[in-house]
């Protein structure tokens, strides 16, 4: 007797299960402008590389008539595939099946693929599109979330974890993405919040739309929960592929190496920065002027825009850039920018990515609002992250490096391997205006014309201290360089640091100020 | 993202003036004001269950002002010091936001 009958039966079963929630539900998903879970996986992975597991898993709910319901795959698709011909693990919640709600078996599938990713030391990509906990399964759903969070934490810093929010992600569900390395959101499709608009309306009488409460832009601009913002799912998938090209597969490897490419930025690096330190420019232009192919992949572009973070390549190797942005808030450090940069520094350190810091900042943002928001403990995160990082660390001081900010932006004192300064650098306790007011207070107060005297003293201070040579005379910076030398210096510094060993005392873990 | 000619604002850090753009979140921040002890404000969003005082009433420290439900917990708000009620701005059943003014007390005569 032939196997044909069994094979046909298998095919029929697979076909049925792969339908997910069925045609009507898929129609609704498409009408919302969303792709199906299966389409999303295919769009992210290399062509025809997806292998699925647990297609026939069924839910175990017994209450509220759940036992009569069939939920194909229990609302989530898990599997493995490749990106750039390298293995990755992936899961996608299927909103067409019971709203992608998370029950016990749904969670088991996710934890299965997470365990696999961690054991095999490959990245995991999670696509979130779920109404939340499956209420009918009660505490089993909560258990499921908890087991996912535990694994997110276990895998943190070992394998890259990417969360893609392509639908609602509410209540406890938001915390898995929050524990992962990078969160991707798409305009009009992603919604993240702990308590939704209807609860807020019932309890507080406050009316707010989902989009205004926890839409893609809110999380990209205001909360800092999201790292990449896209206008469409397709754009989002391109961002995922681009990010993956910059990062290593796990914490024992280095990122893929590409051939060296010269920068293509059309403006000379000498012509980007105004010499007057009070005038802004876009620091990303400097990054582009020194990066291979001038290709800079910015992370958290819209949040805390006064600091810029992201990936680029120098001589074919991935580097993480951290740079003050004079274009926004004069490039000050504040709660949000410290938090943003600190986490990125820790990411780079965990995944063997050298850090290049470009510094041009006038100090910390003053104000009651900042002090009361905890700028002390948030600011401390950046000191901690830089001091703790053992990957190669290179700093270039472009213009202003004042006060506590000078220390925080990967100074020699926090363990920078190489510190360079442009001749325009001003390394000082504070800007000339503030310093002159304090140092020469008596002379200014007693002068016949205090305004004139202040101007004179500011100039005096500027001439004496607002330059890189005082710091260079102490060896705090290694060399004052011409802007045009920057890229060559960086290439050499990173080459020299390739086999860097920086041993720290053994400990279980530190206690960073978060 | 930026226009060709962005409109820079003057931004002061340590007495120096910088030309720069402001962020949306920076624009959203609230100006700090010292707390006014004569204003009884809600410290958590909730619902007013009972109001124990009327305008013009003299109250002593420890007197009940309001009963208030928030996050399924009922709390009685008491007078922190002796004074006179000037205005009661909530009634039973009202839903209050965080930091909403509920009772205004008369200024204490020094």
Task: Please explain how this structure is put together.
The complex is a heterodimer of chains A (about 525) and B (about 110). With about 525 residues, chain A is α/β, with parallel strands linked by helices. Chain A has 3 domains: about 10-245, 2-enoyl-CoA Hydratase, Chain A, domain 1; about 270-430 and about 465-495, 2-enoyl-CoA Hydratase, Chain A, domain 1, CATH 3.90.226.10; about 430-465, no CATH class. Chain A has 20 helices and 16 strands. In chain A, strands 1, 2, 3, 4, 5, 6, 7 and 8 form an 8-stranded mixed beta sheet that branches. In chain A, helix 4 (about 105-120) packs parallel to helix 5 (about 140-155). The longest helix of chain A is centred in the N-terminal third of the chain and has 17 residues, at about 105-120. Chain A is elongated. Chain B has about 110 residues and is mainly β. Chain B has a domain at about 40-105: RNA polymerase II/Efflux pump adaptor protein, barrel-sandwich hybrid domain (OB fold (Dihydrolipoamide Acetyltransferase, E2P), Beta Barrel), CATH 2.40.50.100. In chain B, the strands form 3 sheets. A 4-stranded antiparallel beta sheet of chain B has the order 3-10-8-5, with no helix packed on it. A 4-stranded antiparallel beta sheet of chain B has the order 7-6-4-9, with no helix packed on it. Chain B has a two-stranded antiparallel sheet with strand order 1-2. The longest helix of chain B has 5 residues, at about 25-30. The interface between A and B is medium-sized, with 37 and 26 residues.
Query: What is the total domain count of chain A?
Result: 3
Task: Tell me the fraction of residues in β-strands of chain B, as a range.
Answer: 35-45%
The average pLDDT value of chain B, as a whole number, equals 87
Judged by helices, strands and strand pairing, the structural class of chain B is mainly beta
- Terminal CA distance of chain B: 57 Å
Identify the CATH architecture of the largest domain in chain A: Alpha-Beta Complex
Helix content of chain B: under 10%
**Inertia-based shape of chain B:** elongated
Strand order of the largest sheet of chain B: 3-10-8-5
Rg of chain A (CA only): 26 Å
For this structure, the CATH topology of the largest domain in chain A is 2-enoyl-CoA Hydratase, Chain A, domain 1
- What assembly state would you assign to the polypeptide chains in this entry? heterodimer
| Share of residues in strands of chain A | 15-25%
């Amino acid at each position: 007797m032939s196997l044909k009958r069994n094979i046909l039966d298998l095919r029929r079963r697979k076909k049925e299960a792969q339908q997910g929630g069925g045609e009507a539900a898929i129609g609704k998903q498409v009408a919302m402008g969303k792709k199906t879970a299966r389409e999303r996986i295919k769009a992210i992975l290399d062509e025809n590389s997806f292998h699925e597991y647990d297609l026939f898993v069924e839910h175990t709910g017994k209450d509220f008539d759940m036992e009569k319901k069939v939920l194909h795959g229990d609302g989530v698709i898990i599997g493995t595939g490749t990106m750039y011909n390298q293995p990755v693990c992936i899961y996608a919640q299927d909103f067409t099946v019971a709203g992608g709600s998370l029950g016990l078996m749904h969670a088991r599938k996710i934890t299965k693929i997470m365990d696999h990713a961690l054991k095999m030391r490959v990245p995991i990509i999670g696509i979130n599109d779920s109404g939340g906990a499956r209420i009918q399964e009660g505490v089993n759903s909560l258990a499921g979330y908890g087991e996912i969070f535990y694994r997110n934490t276990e895998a943190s810093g070992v394998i890259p974890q990417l969360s893609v929010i392509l639908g609602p992600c509410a209540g406890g569900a938001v915390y898995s993405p929050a524990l992962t390395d990078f969160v991707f959101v798409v305009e009009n499709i992603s919604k993240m919040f702990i308590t939704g608009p209807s609860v807020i309306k019932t309890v507080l009488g406050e009316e707010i739309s989902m989009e205004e409460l926890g839409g893609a832009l809110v999380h990209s601009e205001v909360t800092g929960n999201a790292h990449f913002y896209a206008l469409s799912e397709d754009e989002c998938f391109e961002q995922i592929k681009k990010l993956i090209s910059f990062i290593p597969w796990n914490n024992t490897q280095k990122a893929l190496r590409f051939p060296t490419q010269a920068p293509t930025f059309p403006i000379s690096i000498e012509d980007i920065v105004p010499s007057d330190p009070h005038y802004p420019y876009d620091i990303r232009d400097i990054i582009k002027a020194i990066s291979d192919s001038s290709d800079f992949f910015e992370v958290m572009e819209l949040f805390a825009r006064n600091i810029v973070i992201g990936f680029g390549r120098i001589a074919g190797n991935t580097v993480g850039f951290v740079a003050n942005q004079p274009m926004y808030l004069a490039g000050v450090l504040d709660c949000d920018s410290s938090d943003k940069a600190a986490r990125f520094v820790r990411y780079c350190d965990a995944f063997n990515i050298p850090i290049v810091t470009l510094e041009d900042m006038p100090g910390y943002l003053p104000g009651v609002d900042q002090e009361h928001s905890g700028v002390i403990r948030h600011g401390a995160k950046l000191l901690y992250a830089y001091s703790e990082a053992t990957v190669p660390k290179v700093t270039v001081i472009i213009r202003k490096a004042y006060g506590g900010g000078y220390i925080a932006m990967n100074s020699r004192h926090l363990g920078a391997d190489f510190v360079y300064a442009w001749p325009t650098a001003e390394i000082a306790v504070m800007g000339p205006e503030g310093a002159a007011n304090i140092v020469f207070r008596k002379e200014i107060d007693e002068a016949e014309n205090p305004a004139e005297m202040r101007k004179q003293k500011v100039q005096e201070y500027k001439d004496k201290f607002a330059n890189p040579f005082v710091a260079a005379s102490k060896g705090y910076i290694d060399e004052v360089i011409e802007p045009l030398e920057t890229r060559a210096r960086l290439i050499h510094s990173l080459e020299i640091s390739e086999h860097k060993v920086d041993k720290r005392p053994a400990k279980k873990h530190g206690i960073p100020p978060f | 993202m930026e226009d060709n000619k962005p409109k820079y604002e003057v931004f002061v850090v340590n007495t120096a003036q910088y030309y720069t753009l402001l962020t949306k979140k920076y624009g959203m921040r609230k100006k700090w004001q010292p707390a006014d002890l004569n204003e009884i404000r809600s410290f958590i969003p909730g619902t007013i269950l009972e109001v124990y005082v009327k305008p013009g009433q003299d109250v002593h420290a420890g007197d009940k002002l309001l009963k208030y439900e928030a996050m399924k917990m009922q709390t009685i708000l008491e007078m922190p010091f002796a004074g006179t009620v000037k205005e009661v701005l909530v009634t039973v059943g009202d839903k209050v936001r965080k930091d909403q003014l509920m009772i205004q007390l008369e200024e204490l005569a020094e």
